[in-house]
Design a protein that fits this description.
Number of strands: 8
CATH topology: Rossmann fold
Order of helices and strands: EEEHEHEHEHEHEH
Strand order of the largest sheet: 1-2-4-3-5-6-7-8
Distance between the termini: 26 Å
Largest sheet: 8 strands, mixed
Structural class: alpha/beta
Strand content: 15-25%
CATH architecture: 3-Layer(aba) Sandwich
CATH superfamily: Alpha/Beta hydrolase fold, catalytic domain
Length: about 210
Amino acid sequence: MLQRVEIPISHGRLEGLLQTGEPDAKLAAIVCHPHPQFGGTMHTKTVFHAAKAFGSLGWPVLRFNFRGVGASSGAYDDGIGEQDDVRAALDFMGRDGIVLAGFSFGSVVGLTVGAADPRVPALCAVGLPVSTTPLSLEAIRQSTKPKLFVQGELDEYGPPAGMRRWFAGVAEPKTLEIVEGADHFFNQHAEPLKAAIINYFGALSV
């Protein structure tokens, strides 16, 4: 069941969509959306497909709009305030065992928070913009939590050569899946994106 929710936060509220999942699910997921200043929202297709993949595992899955997007209060804050939005989403879920996932800008912001939060046992980045983000990736690089990175072969913001160089310095455990023929948005390649998430997290033991 998909529910519209409001997530309380210091600047007001964040609007979200919660897929309730199975009542005995051991894990849940939060999926963060791409850059707000370039049209990113919780309805972005790549976010939708990632959330659908986690949902197929029977998990509760939360998508939400960052501050200043849609009906969420506040204003864009250069990826810094958005980290507080992620923490508010974690608080809203009210449980442990939450995999933090994100697409593009959302992967940088979400995984940075998830790397440090004890409620988060594992991380999932889709289209990590290693070549273009001005935000630090150091917390993600140093995290010793299980980490899945799914990247398009033709990703213009995180091309495989640059991604592999960065990935070589990432702490274990880690997995990199390159989706052949996919661009940054995984246009026409939603199925292999979902399969990468389902296969990795379906077999994850945490």
